[in-house]
Amino acid sequence: MSANNAHIKRLLATKQCQGGDLRDAHLTRLNLSGADLSGAKLMFANLNGTNLSNANLSGAELSFANFVAADLMSSDLSGVDAKGVNFLDAKLNHAQLGGADLVFANLVNANLEEANLSGASLEGANLIGANLNNTQMNGINLSGANLGHAQIRNANLSNADLSNARLVEADLSDANLSGVNLRNANLLNANLNGANLTGADLTGANLAQAKLDGAIGLYQDNLVGMRPPDRPPASQNHPNMSYVSVLQTNSLHSSSNHLGLPRPGLPS
Questions:
Q1: Contact by Cβ (8 Å): 128, 109
Q2: CA-CA distance, 123 to 184, in Å (whole number)?
Q3: What spatial distance separates the first Cα and last Cα of the chain, rounded to whole Å?
Q4: Mapping DSSP to helix (H, G, I), strand (E, B) and coil, where does residue 194 land?
Q5: Beta strands of 79-226 (E only): which ranges?
């Protein structure tokens, strides 16, 4: 079904189209700054290069819409249904995306600096090269997402799900990763300097060549607050400890991979 022409005319004339039917609409390179599109239906719409800064799109349906290089700075996208949306090169810094459904979204090279993605779902999303510095992402679902080369400095990812995520050469320095699920994540060459990993689940994670200077909390939840030894004696068993020291980082997979390459089964 195509967009309602009357709704398009109303949007262009007034920048007001709450709940409007804009499916498949061609709205490229327009100035819709400050527009109210809350609850609007924008599935498969084309908004390539459109200015939507400070716009209200809360609760809108954006699945498979095209926002390539669009300006969504400081916009409200909270609670949007945006499965498969294309935000390639989009400006989303300071945007509100709390509770958004961005499953399998394309956010390659998107700027999300200081955005709020708390509680959002980005399962399987592509965030290669994205800027997520200083972003609020507590409780976010990034399972299976690709964050290779992403900038995630000083971000809040507490209690996030990053299981099976690809974080090759991602910069997570000074990030809050407390309580994060990193099971089977690929952190090859990732920068975790100064990161807080208290209570994080690193079962099966690939930390080959990862930088961990100043990282804290690399031990099991029930030992939080205790200062772990610099390196556990080789002959001592620790049945209740899942400890990862900086000295051990490059040997985590040495028994199965003498070349220091990513663990089999994970992308390189």
A1: yes
A2: 15
A3: 42
A4: coil
A5: none
Model pTM? Answer: 0.82
Per DSSP, what are the bridge partners of residue 76?
A: 56, 96
Render pLDDT for 44-95 as a digit per residue (tens, 0 to 9): 999 999 999 999 999 999 999 999 999 999 999 999 999 999 999 999 999 9
Outline where 63-217 has alpha helix (H): none
Residue given tokens 């060459």 in the structure block: 189
Token code pair at residue 63: 């699945």
- The answer to whether residues 92 and 71 touch, using CB atoms and an 8 Å cutoff, is no
Q: How far is CA 133 from CA 11, 19, 54, 153, 265, in A?
A: 33, 33, 20, 5, 29
Output DSSP code: residue 261.
P
Rounded Cα–Cα distance for residues 72 and 49 (Å): 10
- Token pair listed for 243: 């400890």
Residue type (1 letter), 235: S
- What is the H or E stretch that residue 5 is in? helix 5-14
Residues 206 and 184: their CA atoms lie apart, in Å, by: 7
Euclidean distance between CA atoms 66 and 75, whole angstroms? 16
pLDDT tens digits, one per residue of 17-44: 999 999 999 999 999 999 999 999 999 9
